[in-house]
Amino acid sequence: MNYQKIMVTGGAGFIGSSLVEELIVRGKKVVVLDNLSSGNLENISHLLENPNLTFVNDSMSDSDKIYKLLEGCQIVFHLAASPDVRIGQSNTRIDFENNVVTTYNLLEAMRKTSTCKNIVFTSTSTVYGNANQIPTPENYGPLKPISLYGSSKLACESYISGYSHMFGFGSAILRFANIIGPKSNHGVIFDFKKKLDDNPNFLELLGDGTQNKSYLYIDDCIEGILAVSKSLKDETEIFNIGSENQVDVFTIANLVTKEMGLENVQINLKSILKNGEGWLGDVKNMQLDIKKIKKLGWESKHQSVEAVTKTIGGILSRQAKIIPSAIIKERR
């Protein structure tokens, strides 16, 4: 990339911190803006002394503050958002505030700058809703999200498209499959691991277990983000990013128990919705058509099952490193 100074919103989160680390490795100056509401400073703690990293612990509620932080930046990777689809069921305002409002404030700040006219936005496959075309291409429509999270992301996409065409931004919208990795702090794998830690003999699955989705490993995701960022145009481009196959929830449950070394785990289904979804707003069948991004030379190195297995192993490895130090600290 030719960009020398870059802003990453949500840069202490799961995906954001992995992107920041790769940008620093490539010698870029990076400004991270994160209020740590869902991100974790530990994700980038090993980078905080690096002179090329500037970390700002703040929200995106003030467009003028964002404007000052954008000074000298040539591009923004906008990852700050609510991280979990299910939150909107209990708090109907959070996706609007954390996704739509923050995106508007960022775009307004970019409009006022003279240097930062490029944005890469991490959207989601949930904007497609229950698509009747699988794999689903970028030009599928009409888009009918079934969650407030998906609706808010689609609204963000529209704002980015409008600002790009009115004010000459180069923009890319990336619609992600389920991104997973060792630092995952929510989602089906994380939930299963937490449940089995509490009770290694019993695992409850939400839904009927046949929910079938595409999973992409974090390393592949970061390479996809960077591949797209190299060729932004003065218009809005949309790219799907995912693996080329699916894995169902019941298979994931078995993979998690196997990797944890557990046997004879009783697996029960908790299916209360008529179509067997896990929760209201859960897209039961998802796989993205990724032909467009593959034309840029990118493709996933890990397919869904491998990505799931690698993620479980990484989570267990991270836990093994954390627990001994926690025990030592407690003994002291």
The overall average pLDDT, rounded, is 94
What is the radius of gyration computed over CA atoms, rounded to a whole number of angstroms? 20 Å
| Approximate helicity band | 25-40%
Distance between the termini: 48 Å
Shape: globular
At the third CATH level, what is the topology name of the domain at 5-181 and 215-241? Rossmann fold
Give the strand order of the largest sheet, numbering strands 1, 2, ... along the chain: 3-2-1-4-5-6-11
CATH superfamily of the domain at 5-181 and 215-241: NAD(P)-binding Rossmann-like Domain
How is the biggest beta sheet arranged? 7 strands, parallel
CATH architecture tag of the domain at 5-181 and 215-241: 3-Layer(aba) Sandwich
Helix/strand order: EHEEHEHEHEEHEEEHEEHEEHH
Class by SSE composition? alpha/beta
> CATH class of the domain at 5-181 and 215-241, please?
Alpha Beta
The count of DSSP E runs of length 2 or more, i.e. the number of strands, is 14
